[in-house]
Amino acid sequence: MTSMTATTDRPTASAATPGEAPAGRDHAAYLELVGRLDLATKVRLLTGATSFTLHGEESIGLAPMAFSDGPTGVRGLKFTGGDHVALFPSATVLASAWSEETAHEVGEMLAEEAERQQIHVVLGPTINLHRTPLGGRLFEAYSEDPLLTGKLAAAYVRGLQGRGIGACLKHLVANESETLRNYMNSVVSETALREVYLLPFEIAVQDADAWSIMAAYNDINGVAATEQNHVNNTVVKGDWGWDGLLMSDWFATKTSAPAALGGLDLVMPGPDGPWGEALVADVESGAVHESVIDEHVVRLLRLAERVGALGSTDEQRVWPTESLAPDAPARRAQLRRLATDGMVVLKNAGGILPLAATGPDSGAGTAGDARAGTVALIGRHGIDTICMGGGSATVNPPYQVSIAEGLEAAIGDRLLVVDGVEVRDRAVVAEPSAITDPETGEPGLRVAYLDAEGVVMASEHSSVASIVTGWDDVLPRPTEQVVLTARLTGSGPVRLGVLGTGTWTIDLDGERVGSAELVAEGFDPGESMLKPPVWTIDTDATTTTDDEGTREGALVTATVTVVRSEPQPGPDGKLSTLSHVIASGMGMKGLVVSPVPAPASEVLESVTAAAASADVAVVVVGLTEEQETEATDKSTLALLGDQDAMVSAVAAAASRTVVVVNASTPVLMPWFDEVDAVLVVGLPGQEGGHAVADALLGVREPAGRLVTSWPSADEAAPAWEVVPDGLTLEYTDGTFVGYRGFAAGHAPAPAHWLGAGDGYGAWTYGAARLLEGGSGAPSVEVTVANSSTHDSREVVQVYLRPDTEDQPVRLVGFAPVQVAAGSEATVTVDTDARLWRRWDEAANAWGEPLTGGTLLVARGLGDVQAELPLA
Ligand code: BGC
């Protein structure tokens, strides 16, 4: 149990057969159902029942629905420590395949994961754009480009909904950074909204009919996303004719009548929130017409029908009794393939990659050299590979393969693994293998929840070293204290600590080693959940042997008293749901157990020696889930600590150096010219290490292309700032987002453009020609020849460069193609007419579409292969 477990009864039976869109009732039939309910019952349905479930209503055949994050796995109903579920590569990795087919397959796989857990709606895809490279949550979203984002989102939605599981496009809209996300105001022109930020939502609605959307935390042009009559009612439900359900982001709804009138259909989570009695009173006072409530309920019922949660028992969804386990061989193979497909080769001097896959004899070292074929794998990310980002996209996977494990399985004793410099500046919770539950001996720890009288309300095993307090919906009384106890599996020097808000004491074998008063930063409940404060101490742990000769690890007892306070107004001066959530003491609590880090000088010495001793040095650097996470942004693109110095030291000592970048979003690479090859592997999911080994050894081609331009330096980007001024963040880049702004000279040329990536092929483009497109936009036909000795995958990209300077260059179409070594293929790229549209602010309508300009056939704008003038 944690306080976030849902206890609702689950429906067992579906109208929708997977693969078939349910027929649905007409509007009048839904209204007839709604008409059977009284006002209080209707309003009750419009706030969640628990953190991730909704109320059912037997009298009209409505079963309680279950939602789950999303988007890189289906976590289930618990925020931490839930069942093992498959961990997918992060969205940026999946998007780097530039493949609608891949996105569709991912949607289908997620549907299977959802079915196994009886989840009706997966909270994804995240389709905000990579506006500034500092955005903490970019790893969860696809790209800086709206067309690529929209097309992939639509394919993902089709994959998911084709099996009767709802998708939820998030977060509507202009939620491109995290700093003060609950209070900040994104100031965006209507043109940029329509042409750029709303476009992925529009594509996913038009092309795939997404069944739900999530309204963001932020304000847009001074109005909260949850109250955005203009965006929600006028554009999305009006102009687009969308008939799905609009839910709030978690705790985002701040008001009753303005949100209900502003197009929000459902407040999440529950059971409490700003609607309930307040909304009933609004209707009774005439502030909200009851028909508005009825329309919200109609949309809820329509979603329920689509996911098989409405109707008589035999009309409702029947969940499959058998499903693919998250660690089944077939699932492993899929995740491994998807990860490699999204890895990006940014440099491959002299074709050093792929490395020789077998035996020393085929190694590239000089014959007779003892180093021939040996690989030194260097760096913390090689051993402790970061396979997922932080925040609500986190899941509890059955395992995560490190790069060291992946390479070990592939090349065995040709591999030397060496730890590198520190990559974090904060401690993280203990690996479950570092601790055991003193009562059961299982990996993990024991958690006891105490009430105000010190009575233990629950004591349970946790397989992970963190839990969440503050939502006490399954405990008889509010939790006052939590006691975490664990035995250490190791002995000797250890970094011990705790994480989470509250008043802590920490004892080791009955001796007090410290106490701490930990307070969350900022005004976002997300910060105490997702970036909780930490306290640590370096100490010594000894193993004892009892009378029977059994060895026992040192016993750690960490006790936290939950601090509750009076709700305080946020930085916007308002007392809101968030104020109450923060005051409730909600947050993550965890135990830290980690090795005491060695000094950097010592580490640099050992990595240099290892690099010199091998045929090839593979050095792994990257970000961690503390930088690629929710509720907080980055402040630099530089790698943390001494990682850059480590790469330079390795490059100077090694005969050949390959750098593997274990990060999903741009980082600076000051050593780029010093190394032979650079492979960006992103956050590659549970099969990460195997997939990296496949990529390095050429078992499968790392065929990805960047989904975002990588700046050459901090601040050298068309949009950089993530800290609102006051509470305002101006989208000053307008429609010149990312590569569009770089191409217009709004920032120094990027180090690498959107669309860049070499794979293992070598490409020559033939002449390109224009074809009449069926959809009103032209198609481009081009022949691409792969002159390499590797079968390879190319992504043909077509950009429109308008004639007028006030219009940015933009991606208008793309098509991946697999071509055998020494062969060629003719590719037709359809372009999308929506990219020719122009918003006319004066007329407040779409104006005349663009005419003229030039189509560029390019491998990213840094490598244009052909130009086709348009008449
Ligand atoms: C995130 C959403 C997520 C929700 C539920 C929020 O903090 O912004 O993307 O779906 O939590 O976990």
From TrEMBL:
Residues 794-861 form the Fibronectin type III-like domain. Pfam families: Fn3-like, Glyco_hydro_3, Glyco_hydro_3_C. Residues 1-15 have a biased composition (Polar residues). Keywords: Carbohydrate metabolism, Glycosidase, Hydrolase. Residues 1-23 are annotated as: Disordered. One of its GO terms (molecular function) is hydrolase activity. InterPro entries: Cellulose_deg_GH3, Fn3-like, GH, Glyco_hydro_3_AS, Glyco_hydro_3_C, Glyco_hydro_3_C_sf, Glyco_hydro_3_N, Glyco_hydro_3_N_sf. Gene3D superfamilies: Galactose-binding domain-like, Glycoside hydrolase family 3 C-terminal domain, Glycoside hydrolase, family 3, N-terminal domain, Immunoglobulins. Belongs to the glycosyl hydrolase 3 family. PANTHER family: BETA-GLUCOSIDASE (PTHR42715:SF10). This is Glycoside hydrolase family 3 C-terminal domain-containing protein.
